[in-house]
Amino acid sequence: MRELRTKITRKGQVTVPAEIRRELGLKRGDPVAFILENGHVRFERAQSVVERTAGSVKHDGPVLSAEELRGIAARSNNVLRTLGPEIQWIQSFVSKDRITCVYLAANEEIVRQHASRGGFPANRVAEVAAIIDPTTEKVAG
After folding, report:
1. Over the chain, what is the mean pLDDT?
2. Domain annotation covers residue 132
3. How large is the average pLDDT for residues 107-112?
4. The pLDDT of residue 78 is above 90
5. Residues 61 and 104 both lie in one domain
6. Higher pLDDT, 19 or 99
7. Residue 36 pairs with which residues in a beta bridge?
Protein backbone atom coordinates (compact mmCIF):
# COMPACT_ATOMS: atom_id res chain seq x y z
CA MET A 1 0.00 0.00 0.00
CA ARG A 2 1.23 3.49 -0.88
CA GLU A 3 0.07 6.77 0.58
CA LEU A 4 -0.04 9.73 -1.80
CA ARG A 5 -0.95 13.15 -0.43
CA THR A 6 -2.65 16.18 -1.93
CA LYS A 7 -4.44 19.29 -0.67
CA ILE A 8 -8.01 20.54 -0.81
CA THR A 9 -8.34 23.92 -2.53
CA ARG A 10 -10.45 26.74 -1.13
CA LYS A 11 -13.15 25.64 -3.59
CA GLY A 12 -13.12 22.14 -2.08
CA GLN A 13 -11.38 20.59 -5.08
CA VAL A 14 -8.69 17.92 -4.94
CA THR A 15 -6.03 17.22 -7.55
CA VAL A 16 -5.71 13.48 -8.07
CA PRO A 17 -2.00 12.56 -8.21
CA ALA A 18 -0.77 11.47 -11.65
CA GLU A 19 0.22 8.03 -10.35
CA ILE A 20 -3.36 7.34 -9.25
CA ARG A 21 -4.80 8.67 -12.52
CA ARG A 22 -2.49 6.34 -14.45
CA GLU A 23 -3.29 3.35 -12.23
CA LEU A 24 -7.06 3.87 -12.63
CA GLY A 25 -6.82 4.90 -16.28
CA LEU A 26 -8.46 8.25 -15.56
CA LYS A 27 -8.59 11.10 -18.04
CA ARG A 28 -9.86 14.67 -17.71
CA GLY A 29 -13.66 14.64 -17.39
CA ASP A 30 -13.93 10.97 -16.32
CA PRO A 31 -16.51 10.36 -13.58
CA VAL A 32 -15.10 9.32 -10.21
CA ALA A 33 -16.69 8.31 -6.92
CA PHE A 34 -15.85 8.91 -3.27
CA ILE A 35 -17.23 6.09 -1.14
CA LEU A 36 -17.59 6.79 2.59
CA GLU A 37 -17.49 3.66 4.77
CA ASN A 38 -17.02 3.56 8.53
CA GLY A 39 -15.19 6.88 8.66
CA HIS A 40 -12.87 6.02 5.73
CA VAL A 41 -13.06 7.34 2.19
CA ARG A 42 -12.34 5.25 -0.88
CA PHE A 43 -11.76 6.88 -4.27
CA GLU A 44 -12.45 4.96 -7.46
CA ARG A 45 -13.47 5.26 -11.07
CA ALA A 46 -17.27 5.63 -11.24
CA GLN A 47 -18.72 2.54 -12.85
CA SER A 48 -21.24 2.29 -15.64
CA VAL A 49 -24.60 0.63 -15.15
CA VAL A 50 -23.16 -2.62 -16.55
CA GLU A 51 -20.14 -2.49 -14.25
CA ARG A 52 -22.13 -1.70 -11.11
CA THR A 53 -23.60 -4.46 -9.06
CA ALA A 54 -26.90 -5.30 -10.65
CA GLY A 55 -29.04 -8.19 -9.60
CA SER A 56 -32.37 -9.81 -9.98
CA VAL A 57 -34.81 -11.43 -7.60
CA LYS A 58 -37.04 -14.22 -8.86
CA HIS A 59 -40.30 -15.20 -7.24
CA ASP A 60 -42.11 -18.30 -8.39
CA GLY A 61 -45.79 -18.10 -7.62
CA PRO A 62 -49.31 -17.61 -8.92
CA VAL A 63 -50.35 -14.99 -11.46
CA LEU A 64 -51.03 -11.64 -9.80
CA SER A 65 -53.79 -9.16 -10.65
CA ALA A 66 -53.11 -5.55 -11.68
CA GLU A 67 -54.35 -4.43 -8.26
CA GLU A 68 -51.96 -6.83 -6.50
CA LEU A 69 -49.07 -5.58 -8.66
CA ARG A 70 -49.88 -1.94 -7.77
CA GLY A 71 -49.88 -2.89 -4.08
CA ILE A 72 -46.53 -4.65 -4.40
CA ALA A 73 -45.05 -1.63 -6.21
CA ALA A 74 -46.29 0.73 -3.49
CA ARG A 75 -44.87 -1.50 -0.73
CA SER A 76 -41.59 -1.80 -2.61
CA ASN A 77 -41.28 1.97 -3.06
CA ASN A 78 -41.96 2.55 0.65
CA VAL A 79 -39.22 0.09 1.64
CA LEU A 80 -36.78 1.58 -0.90
CA ARG A 81 -37.24 5.03 0.67
CA THR A 82 -36.11 3.63 4.04
CA LEU A 83 -33.08 1.85 2.53
CA GLY A 84 -31.67 4.96 0.87
CA PRO A 85 -29.51 5.35 -2.23
CA GLU A 86 -27.71 2.01 -1.89
CA ILE A 87 -30.48 0.28 -3.84
CA GLN A 88 -32.56 1.28 -6.85
CA TRP A 89 -35.41 -0.75 -8.34
CA ILE A 90 -35.03 -0.60 -12.12
CA GLN A 91 -37.97 -2.71 -13.29
CA SER A 92 -39.71 -6.04 -12.91
CA PHE A 93 -40.76 -8.55 -15.52
CA VAL A 94 -44.01 -10.36 -14.75
CA SER A 95 -44.81 -13.62 -16.51
CA LYS A 96 -47.48 -16.23 -15.85
CA ASP A 97 -45.60 -17.90 -13.03
CA ARG A 98 -42.70 -15.61 -12.13
CA ILE A 99 -41.70 -12.06 -11.26
CA THR A 100 -38.11 -11.11 -12.00
CA CYS A 101 -37.02 -7.82 -10.43
CA VAL A 102 -33.90 -5.95 -11.53
CA TYR A 103 -32.01 -3.65 -9.16
CA LEU A 104 -28.90 -1.53 -9.05
CA ALA A 105 -27.60 -2.24 -5.58
CA ALA A 106 -24.48 -1.90 -3.48
CA ASN A 107 -24.57 -5.62 -2.64
CA GLU A 108 -26.73 -8.73 -2.51
CA GLU A 109 -27.56 -8.23 1.17
CA ILE A 110 -29.43 -4.95 0.58
CA VAL A 111 -31.54 -6.66 -2.11
CA ARG A 112 -32.40 -9.37 0.43
CA GLN A 113 -33.22 -6.68 3.04
CA HIS A 114 -35.59 -5.07 0.55
CA ALA A 115 -37.33 -8.39 -0.06
CA SER A 116 -37.54 -9.18 3.65
CA ARG A 117 -38.84 -5.76 4.74
CA GLY A 118 -41.37 -5.70 1.93
CA GLY A 119 -42.55 -9.23 2.60
CA PHE A 120 -41.55 -10.35 -0.88
CA PRO A 121 -40.41 -13.95 -1.27
CA ALA A 122 -37.00 -13.91 -2.94
CA ASN A 123 -36.32 -17.44 -4.11
CA ARG A 124 -33.06 -16.43 -5.73
CA VAL A 125 -30.81 -13.34 -5.81
CA ALA A 126 -28.15 -13.32 -8.50
CA GLU A 127 -25.64 -10.75 -9.66
CA VAL A 128 -25.96 -9.81 -13.31
CA ALA A 129 -22.61 -10.58 -14.94
CA ALA A 130 -23.28 -8.70 -18.19
CA ILE A 131 -26.03 -6.98 -20.10
CA ILE A 132 -26.48 -7.50 -23.82
CA ASP A 133 -28.95 -6.12 -26.30
CA PRO A 134 -29.27 -5.90 -30.10
CA THR A 135 -26.49 -3.29 -30.26
CA THR A 136 -23.96 -5.52 -28.48
CA GLU A 137 -22.70 -6.99 -31.77
CA LYS A 138 -21.61 -3.51 -32.88
CA VAL A 139 -19.66 -2.57 -29.75
CA ALA A 140 -15.91 -2.33 -30.36
CA GLY A 141 -13.90 -4.78 -28.26
Report:
1. 83
2. no
3. 88
4. yes
5. yes
6. 19
7. 41
Q: What three-state secondary structure class fits 115?
A: helix
Whole-angstrom distance, CA of residue 94 vs CA of residue 120: 14
Q: Cα–Cα distances in Å, from 40 out to 33, 44, 102, 137?
A: 13, 13, 30, 41
Q: Which residue has the higher pLDDT, 114 or 52?
A: 114
14 and 69, same structural domain? no
Residue 5 lies in a domain: yes
Give the single-character DSSP code of 49: T
| Residue partners of 96: CB distance under 8 A and separation at least 6 | 63
Where is 109: in which H helix or E strand? Answer: helix 108-118
Note the Cα 105 to chain centre separation in Å.
3
Is the pTM here over 0.85, yes or no?
no
| Total residue count of the chain as it appears in this document | 141
Q: Could you give the number of structural domains in the chain?
A: 2
More confident call, 6 vs 62: 6
Helices within 11-141 (DSSP H only): 18-24, 66-83, 108-118
CA angle 100, 102, 104 (to 5 degrees): 160
pLDDT at site 48: 54
Residues 41 and 65 grouped into a single domain: no
Domain extent at residue 27 = 1-46
